[in-house]
Design goal:
alpha/beta; 5-stranded parallel beta sheet; 16 strands
């Protein structure tokens, strides 16, 4: 247990350059508190103390702003940065060394008691505000851009952005003319690219219309 707690703290130092000391991390990182709480609530859940697990989970939600259902399966090395608004559903599965930013939702699309939440494989980074919905699998070492909405499976080593989510890079090969970086803040914005393209077309049409008017006047 002590080794697990120590590893959780080391993960924060590895992925957050703002972390300065162990006391600061232990006392002021809500993502860490939520993960520690989930370890207890998940243990209670599998021991069939489901009511107590849910009550403690709700208390953690009030204290941290992070909602992790006790039934969710969480691997080692999960780092939730900032964390406010993160929601992880009951049948979600999160692998090892996953990073999530604030506002991430691993949600369900079915009202039936089946596997209805996503499976996130090892090494995935999920940007702020991203929504991954349904029993889809996000392959290992993939990157999900900020505010993306993912409703289809994502192959390993992919970069996904936009609404709905679009794969723009896979195994290091671009899928279109967008050139994203792998850092959360550098992921390409498909919506912005689309609006820029539409703006250019409108300007071209306006210029064409003005030219025709000038010719008609002459």
């Amino acid at each position: 247990m002590l080794n697990t707690l120590r590893h959780d703290i080391e993960v924060v130092f590895d992925r957050d350059p703002a972390a300065r000391s162990v006391p600061e991390v232990v006392l002021s990182y809500p993502g860490l508190h939520a993960i520690w709480s989930h370890r207890l609530t998940h243990w209670l859940w599998i021991k069939n103390a489901k009511f107590l697990a849910r009550c403690l989970s709700q208390l953690t939600r009030w204290l941290t702003g992070i909602e992790i259902h006790p039934g969710a399966i969480i691997g080692r090395g999960l780092f939730i940065d900032h964390g406010m608004g993160v929601v992880i559903g009951e049948t979600a599965e999160v692998g090892d060394d996953v990073t999530m930013y604030h506002g991430v939702t691993l949600g369900g699309l079915s009202g039936h008691k089946v596997k209805r939440h996503p499976t996130i494989e090892d090494g995935v980074v999920i940007g702020a505000g991203a929504k991954i919905l349904g029993p889809v699998v996000v392959g290992r070492d993939s990157r999900i851009g900020a505010n993306a909405v993912v409703i289809k499976p994502v192959p390993p080593n992919s970069v996904v952005v936009g609404v709905p989510g679009k794969i723009i890079k896979r195994d290091g090969v671009r899928q279109d003319d967008v050139k994203p970086g792998l850092e959360n803040g550098q992921l390409a914005d498909v919506l912005l690219a689309t609006l820029t393209s539409l703006s250019a077309r409108v300007e071209k049409l306006e210029n064409s219309f003005e030219t025709k008017q000038e010719l008609h006047c002459d």
